[in-house]
Design brief:
alpha+beta, Herpes Virus-1, PH-domain like, 2 domains, seven-stranded antiparallel β-sheet, elongated
Length: 237
């Protein structure tokens, strides 16, 4: 029953319908696991295992897909076999969660239990309940390079900006407390829509894909920086 409860909670990831979320993976109901072939989460939407949260790399931690739920997982988390009805009851590679659900077998946990940290919130889950989320670029301090990521201001934590490497990652790689920052507009540069967060000596420069998206982020960040947590609260001119 515990395994079923965990799986039902995690299956909420498949039910997110976030505007602009870069995935077309449809919902797969818990009772359909093993009975219907899932649509796989695309490799380029994750940078870490969707189960254990360890980062992928080209040599020691490769990407695999669970044939039951479609998650992108590492070799250790997909080192299980379960018979899947949609594939003629042949054994297929599945993740640990699906293995427990489909077979009823228990698995000894070889990793120490860790309390869920502030960054260990799945991007899809947080994005589905966000004030604003989208892809942005964050410029290096020297302004010569940039990193594209998935940026989210959650409804339940509206004073913090969470930064994910990809929109389906299960853990944010960093966060920025927005309270007290100033939001600065910057002139368009080489068709790039720039704006900044600044506080004392700390300055973050962002690049939005469109001018309209830039304005939405500037407004959302300014409200958070001012400590406005109610999305319905009117913003003073």
């Amino acid at each position: 029953q515990d395994a079923i409860d965990r799986k039902e909670k995690r299956s909420e990831t498949f039910k997110t319908a976030v505007h602009g979320l870069e995935t077309d993976t449809p919902a797969l109901k818990t009772e359909e696991l093993g009975r219907r072939a899932p649509q796989w989460v695309r490799d380029n939407l994750v940078t870490m295992c969707m189960r254990c949260k360890e980062p992928f790399n080209a040599i020691t931690r490769r990407r695999h897909h669970c044939r039951a739920c479609g998650y992108v997982v590492c070799a250790r988390c997909s080192d299980y076999k379960a018979e899947l009805q949609y594939d003629g009851n042949r054994p297929n590679r599945v993740c640990q969660e699906c293995y427990i659900f489909l077979t009823g077998h228990t698995v000894l946990e070889d990793r120490e239990g860790k309390q869920k940290g502030i960054l260990e919130k799945g991007a899809a889950e947080v994005s589905s309940r966000s004030l604003l989320c989208s892809s942005l670029q964050l410029l290096d301090k020297n302004g010569k390079g940039s990193t594209r990521g998935w940026f989210v201001i959650p409804q339940d934590d509206p004073l913090v900006l969470y930064i994910y490497a990809a929109p389906q990652d299960v853990r944010a790689h960093t966060s920025i407390p927005l309270l007290g920052y100033q939001v600065r507009d910057m002139p368009q540069s080489e068709s790039r829509h720039l704006f900044q967060l600044a506080q004392s000596w700390q300055v973050f420069t962002f690049v939005a894909d469109t001018e309209e998206l830039k304005r939405r982020w500037m407004r959302a960040m300014a409200r958070s920086a001012a400590g406005i947590t109610d999305p319905e609260e009117e913003e003073e001119e």
